[in-house]
Every structure is written in C-alpha cells, then in structure tokens.
C-alpha cells in the first residue's frame, strides 16, 4: 500500500511538473521507436544501394552516408541498442546500489564498514579511463560485455546516496515499531524502509541510465565497442572515420549526436523532477523564490 501511494504521488508530481512531463514524452517517444523501429525506417539501414553523399530529400530525410546508406534509417535503427543499454544498465546499477547501500545502512557494524569501503574504492577510481582499459583488454566488446563493464563501474554513486538516506530513516519510529512487533528484517527493509525511498531510487535509475548512454556512445565512438552493430555510437564512429564534416556530410555526424543529446535531456529532466520529490527542501525554496519574484 505504501509503495502504491508513493507511485500515485510520483505520477501526480509528474503531471504537475513541466520538466517531468517533457522528459516523459521524450522517453516514451524513443521507447516507441526502439520497440517498433521498422515502423519508422523507410529503408534498410544496412543497405549500401543509394547514391553516396546525397543531401536532404523526401526520399532521404537526412541524406545518405559515404557508403550509400540512408542516415535517417540508421538513426532510427540505432535507437533500440541505445535505449536497451540505458534501461538494462540503469536497472542493474540500481539493483546493485539498493543491495549494497541499504544493506550497509541497515546492517551496520563490520558489514557496513566493508561495503562502504568497497563503495568508496569504486568511487575514487576514474570511471571512463577504467572502462577504456577494461574494454581494450577484453577486445571483443559485445552488448552484454558492455553492460557488464558499465554496471561494475556505475553502481557506487547510487549506493552511497541510498546508504545515506537509509541511515537517516533507520531509527524512525515506524521502523522501530516494526522491529518491536517482531517483523523480520526482510519485511522491515522491503515494506517499511524502501517505499519512502522510491523517488530517490528512481532518480538513481535515471542517472545510471544517462551515464550508460553517454559512456556506451563514447566507447563506440573511439572504436572499443562492436562497430558492426546499429547504434548511435557506431554512427559517430563511421562518420568520424570517414571525415563526414569535411566531406560535406554534416548530418551523418550531427544526427546521432543530437539524438544522444535528446535522450540525455529526457533522462536529465526526469532525474531533476524525481530529485525534487526525494529532496522536499528543493520545492519550498523554489516556491519562496517565485513568491518573492511576484512581490
């Protein structure tokens, strides 16, 4: 019941918050394209059968590549992998963050010290250079290998946030009452502790998804991913390798970059909205500011 109440409160907040509404529309639109890419692709994205380097036209909305491929079809087809990376990595990072952060806060003692030390070690390691080293060493960066690398490098920040929040809730009256009733630790964690943290967990998921999209695109761009797959990062890789900007094919390079920026904007807007739910102090500050401006 508490979880459903939190979800209803979150939906109400999204409807009233412009940032959340815009972010939701962006993500829903991209999810629709990712789920049914064939509905939006006018041509085969891999077919090299068109006039290379042609400009904008009704038949090729964003022109063609130096290989004679339709840029718009490639852009639509690449949405699926980028969205899958965002959702899968975001979900797995969130699960790991919840397990480590809340377990550390609730258990306390030596287990808290050990998990906090592990979290701090991962936090201080430069993330992107570590990702580059791992993927370069493993050489064949498939989809699931990319997911694995991004998850093991992207969970620690969320775990630190959730641990701090759980520590602030651990000794609240309703949790003490649940323990006094003899409720099990699993009941206390999943029924009493986690529901009030739902907005922060969602914000962490969105932040991890944004990190995954940017990191995956960066790795694909420098050639450390699977360059045979259809994604926005591989579009950037081939455009850069063929000097698209100098060759008079700017849309080949700009289109995937703009798509990544749009996805990042949608995730960031939703993240800001849920951050306001998780941090109620942000809303009164904004309300006071508006009142002051009106006065």
What does this structure look like?
The structure is a single chain. The relative contact order is 0.15. The protein has helices spanning 2-16, 18-35, 71-107, 109-124, 127-138, 143-154, 156-169, 173-180, 185-193, 198-221, 232-241, 250-278, 282-294. It has a single domain, classed as MetI-like fold. The chain is elongated, with a radius of gyration of 22 Å. It is an all-alpha fold and 295 residues long.
Write the layout of secondary structure elements.
Elements: H1 2-16, H2 18-35, H3 71-107, H4 109-124, H5 127-138, H6 143-154, H7 156-169, H8 173-180, H9 185-193, H10 198-221, H11 232-241, H12 250-278, H13 282-294
CATH class: Mainly Alpha
Low-confidence runs of at least 5 consecutive residues: 284-295
The number of helical elements comes to: 13
CATH superfamily: MetI-like
What would the average pLDDT be, to the nearest integer? 80
For the record, the count of structural domains works out to 1
State the distance separating the first and last CA atoms: 41 Å
Overall geometry comes to elongated
By CATH, the architecture is named Orthogonal Bundle
H and E order: HHHHHHHHHHHHH
Helix content: over 70%
Strand content: under 5%
Query: Main sheet, how many strands, which sense, barrel?
Result: none
Number of distinct beta strands: 0
Structural class: mainly alpha
Rg on CA atoms, Å = 22 Å
Which fold name is given in CATH as the topology?
MetI-like fold
């Amino acid at each position: 019941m508490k979880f459903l109440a939190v979800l209803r409160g979150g939906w109400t907040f999204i409807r009233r918050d412009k940032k959340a509404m815009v972010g939701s529309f962006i993500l829903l639109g991209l999810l629709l394209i990712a789920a049914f890419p064939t509905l939006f692709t006018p041509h085969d994205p891999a077919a090299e059968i068109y006039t290379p380097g042609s400009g904008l036209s009704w038949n090729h909305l964003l022109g063609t590549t130096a290989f004679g491929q339709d840029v718009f079809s490639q852009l639509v087809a690449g949405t699926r992998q980028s969205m899958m990376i965002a959702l899968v990595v975001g979900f797995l990072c969130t699960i790991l963050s919840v397990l480590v952060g809340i377990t550390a806060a609730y258990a306390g003692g030596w287990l808290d010290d050990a998990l906090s030390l592990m979290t701090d070690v991962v936090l201080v390691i430069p993330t992107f250079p570590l990702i580059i080293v791992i993927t370069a060493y493993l050489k064949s960066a498939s989809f699931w290998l990319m997911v694995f690398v991004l998850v093991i490098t992207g969970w620690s920040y969320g775990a630190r946030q959730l641990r701090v929040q759980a520590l602030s809730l651990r000794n609240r009256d309703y949790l003490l009452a649940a323990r006094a009733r003899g409720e099990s630790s699993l009941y206390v964690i999943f029924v009493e502790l986690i529901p009030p943290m739902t907005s922060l967990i969602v914000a962490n998921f969105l932040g991890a998804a944004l990190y995954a999209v940017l990191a995956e695109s960066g790795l694909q761009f420098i050639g450390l991913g699977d360059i045979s797959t259809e994604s926005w990062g591989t579009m950037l890789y081939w455009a850069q390798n063929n000097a698209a900007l100098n060759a008079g094919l700017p849309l080949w390079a700009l289109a995937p970059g703009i798509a990544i920026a749009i996805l990042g904007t949608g995730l960031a807007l939703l993240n800001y909205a849920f951050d306001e739910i998780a941090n109620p102090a942000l809303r009164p500050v904004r309300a006071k500011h508006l009142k002051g401006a009106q006065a």
